[in-house]
Write a structure and sequence with these properties.
Largest sheet: 6 strands, mixed
Structural class: alpha/beta
CATH topology of the domain at 108-290: Rossmann fold
Number of strands: 14
Distance between the termini: 58 Å
Helix content: 40-55%
Strand order of the largest sheet: 6-5-4-7-8-11
CATH superfamily of the domain at 108-290: von Willebrand factor, type A domain
Shape: flat
Length: 661
Amino acid sequence: MRALASGARDLMFLRPWWLLGLLGLPPLLWWWWRRRRTQSVWRDAIDPHLLRHLLQGEAQADGGLMHRLGRAFAALALTVGYATLFLALAGPSWRKSPQPLWEDRTPLVIALDLSQRVLATDLPPSRLQRARAEIAEILRRRGGGQIALVVYAGDAFTVTPLTEDFANVALYLDALHPNIMPKRGSRTDRGIAESALLLRRAGFRRGDILVITDMLDGDERRVESAASDAASEGYRVSVLGLASERGAQRMVRGVAEAIRLDGSALASLAAEGKGRYAAVTVDDSDLVKLGVLDAQRMEATSGGGKRGAMAIDEGYWLLPLLLLTALFAFRRGVLAVVLLCCLPWQPAQAADGDLWLRQDQQAHRAMQRAGEAFRRRDYAAAERLWQNLPGADADYNRGNALARQGRYPEAIDAYDEALRAQPNMTDAIENRRAVVEAMRRKPPKNDRDQDRKQNDPKNDGKQDGEKNQGKSDQGQQPNAQQQPGGDPQQSGQPPKPQNPKDSGQNRNDGSQTQNGQNGQNGQQNRNPNGAQTPPNPPPNPPRPNDAGRDQKRDPQRDRNAPRPSDPPGNDGGGKNQRDDPNAQREADAAQRERMERALAQRPRPVPSGAGETGRPETAQERQVRILNEARLRRVPDDPGGLLRAKFEQEYRRRASGDERR
């Protein structure tokens, strides 16, 4: 009740003159009542002078009780709808929101000269570094107000608009460099004009503009005129000299030219702008002299900024009631339509909708479907979808799908088409080479034959060698590369584990690589005379289901890595391993590799503090981390790329005349 009483007490109308429309409600109701009273269904069929003799009583004329109730409901709906309309237009309000009426501290716009002269080193370490340090000091110590950052060379551009978030401005300091400017030069007048435009658009009548430069290049009168125009609008222009008295040398058309501080011209510019001038110093005395560390108050009051309470228009809350009454007044039977909307929806069948899509949208959707089919290992469907898509990426992915189906010649043709469209596609080159190598290798033996040999006790002596021989012959197969509209993962991403039947292969639906690998339990050993020797089994051999799980290696590294050779022969013939040091080293390397694989597959105790998951990093996770770090190292470190692209686009728009300064 208290809330209702408080709301009624604070109720006000923002547009009270609309309430005069309520005066038309009584005449409207009288006209409607007169019209409905004289209306009868018989008037269209019987003449009026005969109708009064045919109708018996007022009840029959009115149509009975239901007709009177319907007339009363219609009158009520008309009254409520009419009153709701004008009440909403009047703008009822019972809440207020505090709003700042004006800012009490002067804003500051920093205009930095990013011509090639800022790369001079007369101010150690360079003029650009000193300018960044000066701006960072202003952002750190300035109390209150708003700050914007403008850079200029041959033209002026806004880095950040006026904002109270100084940390947002500081984010762009490291990206400031002359190479982000689309046009060379040093148009200080445009930097001042851009700064004044920011203040004018923000609605400030007073403000400060700080120009950081070393000299005035070009027409000094034009620059002083821009400063005078800004001062006439209430924007004070101050200058910070960014150079030393001795200056530096630069080559201009093969001639050495001295670039040094032009203090007199900069002081004259500050005088025209009704501001101050100071040369850069090693301490903060220059900023103190310019007065940019403290935002001055624009009003002679000791309090904060002026704030007021703005009433909130709550008229939109009345719109649902207005729409409901308008719905019933629209036509008869509308209540039945409302009831039909409450019925449960039936499942609808619709077309694919490609008719309403552009060609690029249809291609994007087909690329997504192809990527989903590839992840489901439905390589035939993926190949059909990619076959209908143009471009080198589609040909490359089609080659991957064909290679997964074992159709190597067709996969090579698809890679060739991708390379004809994009000769520098390294993934297509590598996958084509892998497919060619796979065609030259002997196909792996059937898994059923291997399982039968494993279960046969007669073949225990040579089971390991045959299995290793089959697995070592498996080739590398390419994988899909993710496209802009598709779902397969990009090349180079970490592989995923595989089922036991494909344990010798390292599949990755969206990545490169299937690596051939040596067998888990040994290899076929023969001495130089051809006699077969029993293999040297590793300790704790892995289970068949775990085979190949931790042996996913980079294909390039596997191709370059030395393969362990066969153990030396027995005493029955040939050369003993003690007599051949190379054979001894190769046998030791093979033994170490088998032991490392077996130890990697053995369950490890979980140490304390192993990580968030409570387990040590597996070989696959370690490879994922290494691959991600390698990708990050390949990303070029270009913090100014975003600003460069933004400035170039804005410069082209200005050159085409789309934007008037």
